[in-house]
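From the methods appendix. Each design record in this collection lists the tokenized structure first, followed by the designed amino acid sequence. Records were kept in a plain field format so they could be parsed without special tools. The example shown here is representative of the layout used throughout.

RECORD:
FOLD TOKENS (569 positions):
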């Protein structure tokens, strides 16, 4: 070999060595990624990432993100509402119920007139529609049980957003515009969210000093800063001014509850989701139970058989939802509806080539469904593989529309999730039963489905907003991952369908059904109705080698991020 050739060979070897070291380093980094977060807001996702970077775990990040959403996403993020979280730390799975409760003065017929007819809007607009907020005590309880950063450090990013301001994005400007009538009914709310009588323009810097002060007190004193003292008194005054029955004593009496999850096996995975007072976990468990019994996974992806079986399973799960309510009252529970005998009976009812009319599954009158635009879900996994799936809501977009000026936040309209008028549909077209009648101190039935699934070292945390569409959107994404091996980005992007027993309609996003599949389903007796969008799923996943992945639903402007070992994204 001549001298120049020797040098070339040495140089090549050196490059090879560098390349080997780089690829080894990258593989090593993948195994020690420090976290993955997904939420409906880029600002909240950035907060979650910063908390993880500062040594926080999945619970710290989830609570900090929920509080950030309470500032930048007033449609859904909240201190005046409630929610649910499913956590998996090491192998311990728990669920936290911080669902609102009915105020002590609530009565069964509070939304009916003298003739027993529903009073229009009574369970949706103004503080009579508000349940007792669960978020202040709930988020604190989640941090207290599982967080490792100081409480004040977890609240700090939300204080900064409210105090220093954040930029109004297109989604917020548009949603305020859509809700302008509701927000304009209450001068307290209009002063905050309709400055100069108009929705703020995209790009406006929004500062919320009252909310910043509330959050600072919350950081210093915990939930009592909101559920007792001057802020609780202000909430009572605001409720009284506008005909509500919510009292400071209701706030003081509120307690979140840790509950055992609904657990079931599905397609080789273990799944844990929300138990009552959410119907979400039960609907997921029943649906998977029926699909497994009808060999769903053996049929082609997106084909007529899969769609038909999924709809027939949902039809039955949602029919059984009528039996559900607060577990503190009597009624069916997960044990009844996930029992082997019941699943086998429901699975056997499914006709493989004909849609069962919903009227034959149970007898209730039909209703129209709508998707209100807010509730919000966030998912986090930290570098130790601890996971949190958290869904929180005011129910309708901007809740009942009333913001309490001294507190700086909106109250929910979650009371509409009760069966407020017998046999009548709620905001989501859901017809509900006796077990979900209004009662003092009761928790209203939910569909929220924060869910964690795992198989060995692999972990998925997932969930969605969308009212009655929550369990169906969540399940379709989960099935795409665990049955079809889709990537997170593919799984959240796949077009979705929905059925909820009543109305007897198969809702389909554009592209969800090919013309041939739509025709095949129509031939089986399904009434197909197009809808723009179903749910907004936020997803994180840990692979067996420790690699972390995250995906935000492309239907809306959310954000998903990975925190790399060196602290970068
Ligand atoms: O708890 C429930 O099921 C409803 N209050 C959730 C509302 C909801 O998802 C609104 N979002 N799009």
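DESIGN:
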């Amino acid at each position: 070999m001549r001298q120049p050739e020797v040098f070339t060979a040495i140089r090549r070897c050196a490059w090879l060595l560098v390349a080997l070291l780089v690829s080894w380093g990258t593989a090593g980094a993948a195994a020690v990624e420090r976290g993955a977060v997904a939420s409906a807001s880029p600002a909240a996702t950035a907060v979650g990432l910063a908390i993880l970077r500062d040594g926080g775990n999945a619970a710290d990040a989830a609570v900090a993100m929920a509080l950030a959403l309470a500032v930048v996403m007033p449609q859904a993020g909240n201190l005046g509402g409630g929610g649910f979280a499913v956590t998996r730390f090491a192998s311990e799975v728990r669920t936290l119920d911080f669902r609102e409760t009915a105020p002590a003065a609530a009565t069964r017929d509070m939304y009916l007139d003298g003739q027993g007819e529903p009073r229009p809007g009574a369970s949706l607009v103004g503080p009579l529609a508000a349940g007792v907020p669960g978020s202040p005590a709930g988020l604190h309880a989640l941090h207290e049980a599982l967080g490792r950063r100081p409480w004040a450090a977890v609240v700090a990013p939300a204080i900064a957003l409210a105090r220093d301001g954040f930029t109004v994005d297109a989604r917020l400007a548009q949603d305020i515009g859509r809700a302008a009538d509701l927000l304009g009914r209450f001068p307290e709310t209009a002063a905050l969210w309709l400055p100069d009588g108009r929705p703020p323009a995209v790009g406006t810097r929004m500062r919320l000093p009252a909310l910043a002060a509330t959050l600072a007190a919350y950081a210093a004193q915990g939930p009592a800063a909101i559920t007792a003292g001057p802020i609780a008194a202000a909430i009572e005054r605001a409720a009284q001014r506008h005909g509500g029955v919510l009292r400071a004593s209701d706030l003081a009496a509120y307690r979140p509850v840790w509950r055992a999850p609904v657990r079931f096996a599905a397609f080789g995975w273990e799944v844990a989701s929300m138990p009552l007072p959410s119907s979400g976990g039960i609907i997921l468990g029943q649906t998977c139970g029926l699909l497994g019994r009808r060999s769903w996974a053996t049929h082609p992806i997106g084909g007529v058989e899969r769609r038909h079986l999924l709809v027939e399973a949902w039809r039955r799960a949602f029919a059984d939802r009528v039996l559900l309510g607060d577990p503190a009252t009597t009624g069916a529970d997960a044990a009844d509806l996930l029992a082997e005998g019941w699943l086998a009976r429901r699975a056997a009812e499914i006709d493989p080539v004909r849609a069962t009319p919903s009227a034959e599954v149970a007898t209730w009158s039909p209703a129209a469904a709508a998707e209100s635009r807010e509730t919000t879900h966030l998912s986090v996994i930290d570098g130790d593989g601890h996971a949190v799936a958290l869904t929180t809501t005011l129910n309708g977009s901007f809740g009942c529309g009333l913001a309490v000026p001294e507190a700086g936040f909106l109250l929910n309209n979650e009371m509409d999730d009760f069966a407020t008028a017998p046999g009548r549909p709620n905001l989501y077209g859901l017809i509900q039963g006796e077990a979900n009648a209004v009662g003092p101190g009761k928790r209203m039935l939910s569909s929220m489905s924060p869910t964690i699934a795992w198989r060995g070292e692999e972990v998925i945390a997932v969930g969605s907003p969308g009212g009655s569409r929550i369990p169906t959107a969540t399940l379709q994404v989960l099935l795409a991952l665990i049955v079809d091996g889709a990537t997170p980005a593919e799984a959240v992007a796949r077009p979705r369908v929905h059925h909820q027993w009543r109305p007897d309609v198969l809702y389909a996003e554009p592209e969800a059904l090919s013309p041939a599949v739509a025709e095949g389903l129509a031939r089986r007796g399904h009434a197909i109705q197009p809808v723009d969008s179903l749910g907004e799923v936020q997803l994180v996943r840990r692979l067996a080698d420790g690699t972390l992945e995250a995906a935000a639903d492309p239907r809306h402007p959310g954000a998903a991020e990975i925190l790399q070992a060196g602290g970068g994204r």
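APPENDIX NOTE: Residues 1-31, 363-371 have pLDDT under 50 and may be disordered.
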